[in-house]
């Protein structure tokens, strides 16, 4: 089984803010680097590294696994205030493994996932949810 950790989200800003943004930019917070990138009429947010500067896939997986949920919440709030809009960010993992299929074979796919989700709208927090899928 393989684990894939990530911290990802969306910024639902208006068209004016989106037009004024560069194609991508970085946002730094508490030694963590987040990439803000235009995607499908909104901005996507993803954790891409920490202060060590090591951007190997293994290191990014460890950074995503170990970032405190309090920092994820704080980043979400700051970005929501900065862009004056709704921002949602989630931290979690997906477990890949063999899943049985009807023809007697197996497929390598997501067999479990767990997410911590947080959402702010103009700096005000909406209900936080944790999602487990087995």
Descriptive overview:
By secondary structure, the protein is α+β, with helices and mostly antiparallel strands. Helices cover 23% and strands 54% of the residues. It is built from three helices and eight strands. It has helices at 15-20, 57-66, 69-83, and strands at 2-12, 24-29, 32-39, 42-50, 86-100, 106-121, 124-125, 129-133. Strands 1, 2, 3, 4, 5, 6, 7 and 8 form an eight-stranded antiparallel β-sheet that branches. Strand 5 (86-100) and strand 6 form a beta hairpin. It is globular, with a radius of gyration of 16 Å. The chain starts with a strand and ends with a strand.
Alpha-carbon Rg, integer: 16 Å
- State the total count of DSSP E strands: 8
Mean pLDDT across every amino acid position: 87
Q: Report on the biggest sheet.
A: 8 strands, antiparallel
Beta fraction of the residues? over 45%
* CA-based shape: globular
Query: Which ranges are low-confidence, i.e. pLDDT below 50, for 5 or more consecutive residues?
Result: none
Find the structural class using helix and strand composition. Answer: alpha+beta
């Amino acid at each position: 089984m393989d684990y894939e950790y990530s911290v990802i989200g969306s910024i639902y800003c208006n068209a004016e803010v989106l037009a004024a943004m560069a194609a991508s930019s970085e946002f730094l917070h508490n030694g963590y680097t987040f990439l803000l990138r235009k995607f499908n009429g909104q901005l996507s947010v993803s954790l891409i590294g920490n202060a060590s500067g090591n951007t190997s896939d293994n290191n990014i997986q460890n950074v995503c696994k170990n970032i405190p949920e309090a920092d994820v919440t704080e980043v979400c709030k700051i970005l929501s205030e900065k862009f004056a809009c709704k921002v949602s960010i989630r931290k979690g993992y997906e477990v890949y493994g063999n899943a049985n299929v009807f023809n007697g074979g197996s497929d390598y796919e997501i067999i479990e996932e767990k997410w911590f989700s947080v959402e702010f709208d103009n700096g005000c927090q909406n209900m936080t949810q944790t999602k487990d899928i087995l």
